[in-house]
Design a protein that fits this description.
about 350 residues, alpha+beta, seven-stranded mixed β-sheet, five-stranded mixed β-sheet, 14 helices, about 40% helix, about 25% strand
Amino acid sequence: MVSALHREPEPLHFLRRLPFIRSLKYRPVRQGCDLAWAGKLDIRTPQGVFHFAAAAKPSHLTRSSVSQLVAWLQQLPKARAEGILLLAGHIPRGAAESLIEANVNFADDAGNIHLAPGKTYNWTVIGNPAPSRESARRPTSRAELQLLFQFVTHPDSLDWPVRRLESAAGVGKSRVAQARSQMIEEGLLVRVGNRFRLGPANLLAERLVSGYAQVLRPKLVIGRFRAAEAAPEAFLARLRRDLPPGLRYALSGGQAADLLQHFYHGPEVSIFVAPWGRDVAQRLRLLPDRDGPITVLNAFGEAVFWQERGQHMLAPPWLIYAELLRSNDARSHEAAAELRREFLA
């Protein structure tokens, strides 16, 4: 992980994917002991910038080494100890639980994370097995993410034939088997005899949210637009009433969350549309505007069209949840927590 200190440590790649991290700046330093200062981290969030000293433990942590680490931290002034983030090769579940109990922030090569900057954010993923060097560095593909959203929305589809998954998730037949094998290797899916089941919930949640923000959504965005109506509710009412023949849509983000729970809707509209062509914006009476409140996304498969609520088709809860966590609005994050509590537990 940090055997070559001139290279950015592998755990930072996982930290960059967290939905509340807007940017991460790492400045390495060189020291020669086993538990060494690896560098300094500046993590920017919607609530401000948090500064950490990165401590490096290249080997796998054991309970014994965690006890030594905690004892070392207890000798430091409280303010300095709280500003340390441990980077490790692998942190097993037991060691991770001990670190969390001691209020130690950490990240490892397998994607195990505990990060609680300030009082607003807290992200914890533990239990990921130690990866091989190759799988630790391999980025998640768009095909894997589209399949994963399909699987968490319709768990019965885990055992569907390739041809059926192709239309449901919008993934080519040749890629379905490859993506499913990769997900098994990474623990996202588990093979039980001739059948499959989903992997650990915390691992799935981290991959869905970070993968959506970093990999999938950027490829799905068609553009940002502005409607003639000033209020999003007025635009959606017209869309429902005058939807052009042959077009389908599914709401995501705050507007969808509002229809599900009446907790929050926000000023923006995120909407999946299919099919999209050059004339669709005109048919929907949308004007291109890079700062517009309406974001149009490509509906990548049947999985996008989940259920109808309030006479609108909605995207599945996991897509709504991932979209909510992209926002800088703290209310959007609260809505995401409510949505997860009710629909994704």
